[in-house]
Design goal:
Layout: H1 2-9, E1 15-16, H2 25-35, H3 41-52, H4 54-61, E2 65-70, H5 78-84, E3 88-95, H6 98-111, E4 116-117, E5 120-121, E6 138-143, H7 153-167, E7 172-178, H8 183-190, H9 196-212, E8 221-228, E9 233-240, E10 244-248, E11 251-255, E12 260-267, H10 271-278, E13 282-289, E14 295-302
Parallel strand pairs: 1-12, 2-3, 2-6, 3-4, 3-5, 6-7
Antiparallel strand pairs: 7-14, 8-9, 9-12, 10-11, 13-14
The structure holds N,N,N-trimethyl-histidine.
N,N,N-trimethyl-histidine binds next to strand 12.
Length: 303
């Protein structure tokens, strides 16, 4: 962790921090709050697509499904599928944090007694193995939230390869993909009026202070998210308000007034650019969108 943080902060042109460090307990709470904000359209829109299209989704997925969800968290969107489809025999929620995962799994067993719930505590960004349950069921990976948009290009490829291997020839991938739209709508979704996203962004500093005993003063930074049109992504930054320094692993890091720490990328796609990105591994077989074309849920089969 120290090494990664130091590497990002020693970057000459643009300081960075790994976005995975947003998510301590407070960070997860703040993210949940973000998903309920008026300006943050993705969660609401994806849930509506799932609810409205569940009959069609059921048809595409086939009759005996083993549903696998990398990074399942509270499984809140998955409940829409589990509760409304009759063809899911088993569900494998996956997360790095085991405690929370097993607690959620117990709740799911109570809520969906007919579905076999088999949590798997693993890092899905690296190759992993599934427990050998129901070999005749069709393996379908569910990856909502447009989380794929947070990955760097190498990580996208790695992820697609891992999923392609896991589902085998007969499986499928059901994935949430956020779409390009007006810059103003995008920027508001990541610069909300209640400053919840600002607190979420600054929480990375609190988290690192605690874990690595660093001396970040979050008040020395301003949150701002910017649409980068060339790279088709929202970038979250923490802008330095005044010159100051902190010590990280014995090294002094200087922050110049006006520079920023780049903390997250959230890529947005057109239907074409997404198809092209996954094209070496998957065929897009069906796309569902909302009426404003803000968000899409896509059904992919392996090549
Ligand atoms: C976790 C990928 C769904 O990129 O929209 C929300 C993270 N960051 N607001 C996104 C996030 C700031 C979010 N995802």
């Amino acid at each position: 962790m120290l090494e990664e943080v130091l590497e990002g902060l020693q970057n000459k042109n643009q300081k960075t921090l790994p976005s995975k460090y947003f998510y301590d307990e407070r960070g997860s709470e703040l993210f949940d709050e973000i998903t309920e904000l008026q300006e943050y359209y993705p969660t609401r829109t994806e849930r509506k697509i799932l609810t409205d299209k569940v009959r069609e989704i059921e048809e595409y997925l086939g009759h005996k499904i083993l549903l696998i969800e990398p990074g399942s968290g509270s499984s809140s969107k998955t409940k829409i599928l589990l509760g409304n489809m009759d063809n899911i025999c088993c569900y494998i929620p996956m997360d790095i944090s085991g405690d929370y995962l097993f607690r959620v799994a117990d709740q799911l067993r109570e809520e969906f007694p007919k579905i076999s719930i088999q949590p798997l505590s693993a890092d899905y960004t690296k190759p992993f193995e599934l427990p050998e349950i129901n070999p005749d069921a069709r393996k379908v990976v569910f990856y909502p939230g447009s989380t794929i948009g947070n990955f760097k290009m190498e990580k996208v490829e790695q992820f697609l390869k891992v999923i392609h291997d896991i589902i085998e020839n007969e499986g499928a991938l059901l994935i949430g993909v956020d779409l390009i739209k007006d810059k103003q709508i995008l920027e508001l979704a990541y610069n909300d009026s209640k400053n919840v996203t600002a607190a979420f962004n600054k929480n990375i500093l609190h988290h690192l202070n605690r874990e690595l005993d660093l001396g970040f003063d979050p008040d020395n930074f301003d949150h701002k998210s910017i649409w980068n049109n060339e790279k088709s992504r929202i970038e979250m930054h923490l802008f330095v308000k005044k010159d100051h320094s902190i010590t990280v692993g014995g090294k002094e890091i200087h922050f110049r007034k006006g520079e920023s720490i780049h903390t997250e990328n959230s890529h947005k796609y057109s239907l074409e650019s997404f198809q092209e990105m996954v094209g070496d591994w998957f065929d897009v077989k069906k796309v569902w969108t909302d009426e404003k074309n803000y968000f899409s849920l896509q059904y992919l089969e392996p090549k």
